[in-house]
Design goal:
By secondary structure, this protein is an all-alpha fold. It has helices at residues 2-13, 18-42, 48-71. The mean pLDDT is 91.
């Protein structure tokens, strides 16, 4: 989680770096998968802990996608 946060902060300072955007997007997708898996393991998909992490990570992924689309 801390590595993904650090990558996102570095990416915010370098808006034209597509390689970093791809790395952050991949990390975000992995983090969403881990959050959903945690929700499945505890038996509640609407538990606030994985739900908040999933929503916040989706927002970060949208910023990565925006960077990738605007660069082309």
């Amino acid at each position: 989680m801390f590595l993904f946060g650090a990558l996102s902060l570095v990416r915010a300072g370098r808006p034209g770096d597509t390689t970093l955007a791809w790395l952050c997007l991949f990390a975000g997708i992995c983090w969403i998968a881990a959050s959903v898996r945690f929700a499945v393991l505890i038996g509640n998909l609407f538990d606030p802990r994985p739900l908040v992490f999933t929503i916040l990570t989706l927002g970060l992924c949208i910023f990565c996608i925006r960077t990738l689309v605007m660069k082309r």
